[in-house]
User: Fold this.
Amino acid sequence: MFHMPRTASASPERVAETFKDELARVDLDELPLQQGMTRGSVALGDDLSAMVIRTESTDGRVRVHAGLFFSSLVAGCACANDPTPENEDAEYIEAVFDIDRPDGATTVTLSESSQ
Assistant:
């Protein structure tokens, strides 16, 4: 669990923008990138970006359904004579972020479309 307090307190019209800004500061290990990958074996977060698909707000919670774009790598043995090139592949998953109000405690799960 991590915290997104600014998204939790954002007005409905600012949730998407605030969410993307706060997501850029989240530790990548907190996100289900590794679990949702389809091509690689190691998730890379250097180029993580998000597309907000839908938001729902209630008095107690903000729910953000987002598409996450990132890269993955099929890691070789890293031997000097390993003929396997280490190419990055584009990855996409959809995740649901449940953000509690007022403290911003956040849980994230893969959406059913990414499982």
Observations:
- The longest helix spans residues 15-23.
- Helices lie at 5-9, 15-23, 33-36.
